[in-house]
Design goal:
- The chain has 311 residues and is α/β, with parallel strands linked by helices.
- β5, α6 (160-172) and β6 form a beta-alpha-beta unit.
- Helices cover 42% and strands 13% of the residues.
- The chain folds into two domains: 9-129 and 292-305, Aspartate/ornithine carbamoyltransferase (Rossmann fold, 3-Layer(aba) Sandwich), CATH 3.40.50.1370; 131-289, 3-Layer(aba) Sandwich (Rossmann fold), CATH 3.40.50.1370.
- It has a five-stranded parallel sheet with strand order 7-6-5-8-9.
- The chain is built from twelve helices and nine strands.
- α1 (14-29) crosses α12 and α6 runs parallel beside α7.
- It binds phosphoric acid mono(formamide)ester (CP) and norvaline.
- Residues 124, 159-161, 225-226, 229-230, 265 line the site of norvaline.
- Phosphoric acid mono(formamide)ester is lined by residues 51-54, 124, 132, 265-266.
Length: 311
């Protein structure tokens, strides 16, 4: 899919991702300079699932850039009554300058991009969460100066966040180790695709292991996410048992580098995938990640929607 959209980090080169980081850093340092960058532009925000960070950061981001965002909840639009994704994309494209969508089936964001005529941003699908990964690597770059070579350990469910981080790791040259229970490894197609990209770019391919302590050994980042994602609520109880041993604890953090940071996309469940002592402890950067969603997404919006430069 063309870079006209932001659907997966796989579609963006390392230079383009670094360009987004530079733009986001400039916007974070001087937000006022960009207050008219998207003046008169509108973003439709389609949400098939709930959200705190994605909704608020996109809505506030558009406001700070001089534009407006329209919240279109699952039950608010005709999509809910059977209007096709294709027709929805075609119609929205006649009114707005961009579409951000949070969906279940990844095919829905692909269809929005295919049938619409405006840029589409993936605000999370069952397969990928590229806005989150972009904010996370930006957070690491802020703290460490550069991300290339930093070891990312992802512990828990091989889900949408994990997949997006895998593509980011490959693009940015980070070794990544995923530690997950048997049967909950990352999607095979994503793993293959990430490995192919890694080979092309000369980056290390993400590794997968069922041993969480092996995954975190010597890591610069220990990352986790919920064990039951949105749409998997019925499996929650069963998953609590399956994922025992994959909780990020102080003991697990001690196996990483002493300067390692703890990351989580949020929302978190203290006592399930992470101990409170870790997420609320000195190594945690979870609220920086959440804040940086705003800055990196503003950079994506201006890049895709053709905003003018700073005043
Ligand atoms: N991390 C994230 O996307 O959070 P929300 O579900 O609150 O948007
Ligand atoms: N994996 C989680 C991420 C939430 C931001 C989910 O899809 O629910």
């Amino acid at each position: 899919m063309a870079r006209r959209h932001f659907l997966s980090l796989k579609d963006w080169s390392r230079e383009q991702i670094e360009g987004l980081f530079d733009l986001a850093a400039g916007m974070k340092a001087d937000p006022g300079a960009w207050s008219e960058a998207l003046k008169g532009r509108s973003l439709a925000m389609v949400f098939q699932k709930p959200s705190t960070r994605t909704r608020v950061s996109f809505e506030v981001g558009m406001f700070q850039l001089g534009g407006q965002a329209l919240f279109l909840g699952a039950n608010d639009i005709q999509l809910h009554r059977g209007e096709t994704v294709g027709d929805t994309a075609a119609v929205l494209s006649r009114y707005v300058d961009g579409i951000m969508a949070r969906v279940f089936a990844h095919q829905d964001v692909l269809d929005l991009a295919r049938h619409g005529t405006v840029p589409v941003i993936n605000g999370l699908s069952d397969l990928l969460h590229p806005c989150q990964a972009l904010a996370d690597y930006f957070t690491l770059r802020e703290r460490r100066g550069q991300v290339s070579g930093l070891k990312m350990a992802y512990i828990g469910d091989g889900n949408n966040v994990c997949h997006a981080l895998m593509f980011g790791a490959v693009k940015l040259g980070c070794p990544m180790s995923v530690g997950c229970p048997k049967g909950h490894e990352p999607n095979k197609l994503i793993s293959k695709s990430a490995a192919r990209e890694a080979q092309k770019l000369g980056s290390p391919a993400p590794e997968v292991t069922n041993d969480p302590m092996a995954a975190v050994a010597g890591a610069d980042v220990v990352y986790t996410d919920v064990w039951a994602s949105m749409g998997q609520e019925a499996e929650h109880k069963q998953r609590l048992e399956i994922f025992q041993g994959y909780k990020v604890t102080p003991e697990m953090m001690a196996a990483a580098k002493p300067e390692a940071v703890f990351m989580h996309c949020l929302p978190a469940h203290r006592g399930e995938e992470v101990d409170a002592a870790v997420i609320d402890g000195p190594q945690s950067v979870v609220f920086d990640e959440a804040e940086n969603r705003l800055h990196v997404q503003k950079a994506v919006l201006v890049t895709l929607m053709g905003g003018v430069g700073p005043r």
